[in-house]
């Protein structure tokens, strides 16, 4: 038995290599994030995930970004196209009950289809507000109003829970009020904390109080609170999230290879500062050579608290077979919502977190 380590990494391609296997078996690793390049068809994906899960006991967490809309890594071969969360929000604005029903149904569909192939968790839902400023968020957000995001996030995560999947809300404490994209730039939100508390933080606090199982932290700097990006800030993670709010769920970094993460140094420093801030699992994507550097140079002492929080992220409960799912009334209901809400644009950054 090897405890889950604090790193989540990816694979080079759709088939596991010897180098992939070596990295995954290193005790520093606790999870694998999959991208569009890892998916050819359901049979191949199912076999790949089974191989990942066979490497360790307890098995490594298997994760993906499968929000819907512009962020859906697995498409085709039975994976239904999920509408953007903003389309659910638009329905909610005109018909509150229909919006809530759609959110729960589609949250269940996303989680059920992923669990059927062996995925433990999807980094969803987005809890950011759509201020009409951030192109990288935009219709990935449910709503511009905190109360709308909270209502729809509760419904969406309830659907995920029905399917036995833990939800991970993102991007704490809110990415929607800055235009810069943290994948390629250094976004700064100059607003005072009091303003952020009245707006962007409200969905995160509401979901934290309902103990959403996981949260992902943004690489955004809020200089009125801390000069460091939130994902490297003990103030944001240990101080506000865990201290003031009493949050006991798992905290994930955003991808530490993103441009905004370079504010704190090289990859070794990014991992160290992220974990020191209170993050439970640090993501290193698309740079296997950086994973090698971290595994050579850093060691990670055991943390029973971290391991317990990560253990709660494993998929749980029965999983319907493809044949059972095909006959499910819930599948038919979800398909009706997809037809009503429509499908969306190609994936945004298919190989990035």
Describe the protein in words.
The chain has 353 residues and is of the alpha/beta class. The chain has a domain at 34-42 and 60-227 and 234-261 and 277-287 and 312-341: Glycoside hydrolase, family 3, N-terminal domain (TIM Barrel). 40% of the residues lie in helices and 13% in strands. The chain contains 13 helices and twelve strands. It has helices at residues 18-25, 42-54, 85-94, 96-117, 146-162, 193-198, 201-209, 235-244, 267-277, 288-297, 304-311, 322-326, 329-341; strands at 7-9, 29-34, 61-64, 66-68, 71-72, 121-122, 166-172, 214-217, 221-222, 226-229, 250-255, 281-284. The strands form three sheets. An eight-stranded parallel barrel has the order 1-2-3-6-7-8-11-12, surrounded by eight helices. It has a two-stranded antiparallel ribbon with strand order 4-5. α2 links the parallel β2 and β3 (61-64). α4 (96-117) crosses α5, α4 (96-117) packs across α13 and α5 packs parallel to α7. It is globular, with a radius of gyration of 19 Å. The mean pLDDT is 94.
Average pLDDT, rounded to a whole number, is: 94
Strand content: 5-15%
How many extended strands? 12
Structural class: alpha/beta
Helix content: 40-55%
Task: Give the N-to-C terminal Cα separation.
Answer: 29 Å
Query: What is the helix/strand order?
Result: EHEHEEEHHEHEHHEEEHEHEHHHH
What's the CATH topology name of the domain at 34-42 and 60-227 and 234-261 and 277-287 and 312-341?
TIM Barrel
**Coarse morphology:** globular
- Looking at this structure, what is the CATH superfamily of the domain at 34-42 and 60-227 and 234-261 and 277-287 and 312-341? Glycoside hydrolase, family 3, N-terminal domain
Q: Sheet bearing the most strands, described?
A: 8 strands, parallel, barrel
Indicate the CATH architecture of the domain at 34-42 and 60-227 and 234-261 and 277-287 and 312-341.
Alpha-Beta Barrel
Instruction: Please report the first level of CATH classification, the CATH class of the domain at 34-42 and 60-227 and 234-261 and 277-287 and 312-341.
Output: Alpha Beta
Q: What integer value in Å does the Rg equal?
A: 19 Å
Q: Extract low-pLDDT stretches.
A: none
Major β-sheet strand ordering: 1-2-3-6-7-8-11-12
